[in-house]
């Protein structure tokens, strides 16, 4: 059977609603919806919550970033090895709010792969998606920066960027999956993104800042089924 992968990944960012008890409320809701619907939901909490959340929940847990450095005499870096030890199965790389140079993306992907960490490289346009696909990450997450946190879905505001990124990525790396992100907030947004060729979505505010994350996640999962 083919390996299952998350169709929905929630980035908790550094929202006040995303860590400590509030973060656990979101993770609990995600786990419940995953169990009820069978849709795989990944979470990317802050570093301090990686270990507790990977211990408490059956959800795939991702780091929000790793630094392109190896263990040794360095200080204050986020090591791929350390997030693996904390229980993460993968990591975002080059998120719009934590950009890296192309050389650093390449190195971060290489280091992540060397410790069997799944890589989700975030990109801002079709050309960057094609460039990042050359590193053969497990996922590319295409997110137009101007729509991030806007509540306006990339699926409706810029469907072309999803369709063209999927084509560009698959031309370079057939096994890389494409996530669509920015403003995703409903099952309809996901369904449209998947109809355009995306394999899933990366989202944040629509769930993390929701009054009822369970209700939003139930609606989101409905778009996948
Ligand atoms: O990592 C998630 C993306 O930046 C999307 O954020 P958003 O869903 O708040 O627009």
TrEMBL record:
Binding sites annotated in the UniProt record for substrate: 11-13, 148, 183, 204-205
EC number: 5.3.1.1
Pathway it works in: Carbohydrate degradation; glycolysis; D-glyceraldehyde 3-phosphate from glycerone phosphate: step 1/1; Carbohydrate biosynthesis; gluconeogenesis
Gene3D superfamilies: Aldolase class I
Main location: cytoplasm
Catalytic class of the enzyme: isomerase
Signal peptide region: none
Record's keyword terms, sorted: Cytoplasm, Gluconeogenesis, Glycolysis, Isomerase
Locations listed in the record: Cytoplasm
Matches recorded under InterPro entries: Aldolase_TIM, TIM_sf, Triosephosphate_isomerase, Triosephosphate_isomerase_arc
Isomerase in keyword set: yes
Active-site residues, record numbering mapped to chain: 95 (electrophile), 143 (proton acceptor)
Subunit structure: Homotetramer; dimer of dimers.
PANTHER family: TRIOSEPHOSPHATE ISOMERASE
Function: Involved in the gluconeogenesis. Catalyzes stereospecifically the conversion of dihydroxyacetone phosphate (DHAP) to D-glyceraldehyde-3-phosphate (G3P).
Record's protein name: Triosephosphate isomerase
Organism: Methanoplanus limicola DSM 2279
């Amino acid at each position: 059977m083919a390996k299952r992968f998350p169709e929905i990944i929630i980035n908790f960012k550094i929202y006040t609603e995303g860590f400590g008890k509030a973060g656990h409320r979101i993770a609990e809701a995600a786990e419940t919806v995953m169990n009820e619907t069978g849709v795989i939901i990944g979470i990317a909490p802050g570093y301090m919550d990686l270990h507790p959340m990977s211990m408490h929940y059956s959800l795939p847990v991702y780091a929000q970033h790793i630094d392109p450095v190896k263990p040794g005499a360095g200080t204050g870096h986020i090591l791929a090895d350390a997030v693996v030890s904390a229980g993460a199965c993968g990591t975002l790389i080059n998120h719009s709010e934590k950009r890296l140079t192309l050389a650093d993306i390449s190195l971060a992907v290489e280091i992540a792969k060397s410790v069997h960490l799944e890589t989700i490289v975030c990109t801002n346009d079709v050309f960057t998606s094609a460039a990042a696909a050359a590193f053969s990450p497990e996922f590319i997450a295409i997110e137009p920066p101007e729509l991030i946190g806007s509540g306006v879905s990339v699926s409706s505001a810029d469907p072309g960027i999803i369709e063209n990124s999927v084509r560009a990525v698959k031309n370079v790396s057939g096994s890389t999956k494409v996530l669509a992100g920015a403003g995703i907030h409903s099952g309809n947004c996901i369904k449209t993104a998947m109809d355009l060729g995306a394999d899933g979505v990366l989202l944040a505010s629509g769930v993390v800042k929701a009054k009822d994350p369970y209700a939003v996640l139930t609606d989101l999962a409905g778009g996948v089924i």
